[in-house]
Specification:
The structure holds 2 protein chains of 2 kinds. Chain A has a 5-stranded mixed beta sheet with strand order 2-9-8-5-6, with no helix packed on it. A 3-stranded antiparallel beta sheet of chain A has the order 1-3-7, with no helix packed on it. Chain A has a single domain (4-106), classed as Immunoglobulin-like (Sandwich), CATH 2.60.40.10. Chain A is built from no helices and 9 strands. Chain A is mainly β. Chain B has one domain: Sandwich (Immunoglobulin-like). Chain B has helices at residues 9-25, 33-43; strands at 2-3, 48-50, 53-57, 60-63, 67-73, 83-90, 97-102, 111-116, 122-130, 135-146. In chain B, the strands form 2 sheets. In chain B, strands 2, 4, 6, 7, 9 and 10 form a 6-stranded mixed beta sheet that branches. In chain B, strands 3-5-8 form a 3-stranded antiparallel beta sheet, with no helix packed on it. Chain B starts with a strand and ends in a 6-residue tail after the last strand. Classes of the chains: A mainly beta, B alpha+beta. At the A-B interface, strand 3, strand 4, strand 6 and strand 7 of A face strand 1, strand 7 and strand 8 of B.
Chain lengths: 107, 152
């Protein structure tokens, strides 16, 4: 797993709903394609994405091969207090990518 | 080297003919067996009411490898009344599931955007489970002119 792109505001007012867009570089091999030899290319997808805000899970996605390559997921959360928002992607090979962004919340 | 799905002239003609025959005989709101089973697994057999859920997707897409889709649910997203899970199902990909999104009162809105793969022209179903245990759904058809998996 390689790079992740995150789009979310750096600051927000308390109670404001912020939109978070995430994009991660991943082939998302479906397990339904074959090599020329006929051998099935094994499935290798990101199966779980989790967003935690100040340690608490605020959004989670379970993904299947019908997700496009380089999965994009956009969702929202309420700005409660200043703290880290972390993003974790886990794939079939057990590789985990975690990114974290600090959000500053003003009253 | 990776070979795309074998696609002969004959198989394309057969599939096109079959899909027209299927459309002609397709009863309203019916699902393919596997899709219906996957939905039952998600709901535990609970009643699903059409409504509250809206899928935003282009009715006709050129490339099934990456289809932008947004789903939103009518909900105040409070502690007492919120969307717990939104599940997306397809009808004619090799597997019926697309994704499940778990939300909470901290989500603020019940809108999620993503990009999906569609193997062919088919219906997409979004089902939302609310905090009161009820299930709501919407189904849309997307026409795909270049399917997923036929490109490298």
């Amino acid at each position: 797993m390689a790079n992740a792109l995150l789009d979310l505001p750096k600051t927000a007012r308390k109670g404001e709903v912020i939109k978070i867009t995430t994009l991660v570089s991943h082939l998302m091999e479906t397990g339904y394609r074959r090599e020329i030899s006929g051998a099935v290319i094994p499935r290798l997808i990101i199966h779980t994405f989790t967003c935690r805000y100040d340690g608490e899970e605020v959004f989670r996605a379970e993904l299947f091969p019908a997700m496009a390559a380089n999965p994009l997921i956009a969702f929202s959360t309420i700005a409660t207090k200043s703290g880290p928002i972390s993003f974790t992607w886990v794939d079939d090979a057990g590789i985990t990518l975690t990114e974290s962004v600090d959000l500053v919340v003003t009253d | 080297m990776i070979e795309p799905y074998p696609l002969s002239r004959r198989s394309v003609l057969v599939q096109v003919a079959a899909s027209f025959a299927f459309l002609a005989t397709r009863p309203a709101f019916a699902e393919a067996d596997e899709t219906a089973q996957a939905i039952r697994e998600f709901t535990g057999g609970a009643k699903i009411t059409p409504g509250k859920v809206s899928i935003e997707v282009a009715p006709l897409v050129e490339n099934g490898n990456s289809v932008a889709l947004a789903v939103a649910v009518e909900s105040p997203m409070t502690v007492d009344h919120h969307v717990k899970t939104i599940a997306l199902f397809n009808e004619k990909n090799p597997q019926p599931q697309i994704a499940r999104f778990h939300l909470s009162p901290r989500s603020g809105t019940s809108r999620v955007e993503t990009r999906i793969r569609l193997a062919t022209t088919q219906h997409i179903t979004a089902i939302a489970q609310l905090s009161d245990g009820s299930f709501w759904s919407q189904e849309v058809e997307v026409i795909v002119t270049i399917a997923a998996c036929t490109e490298e």
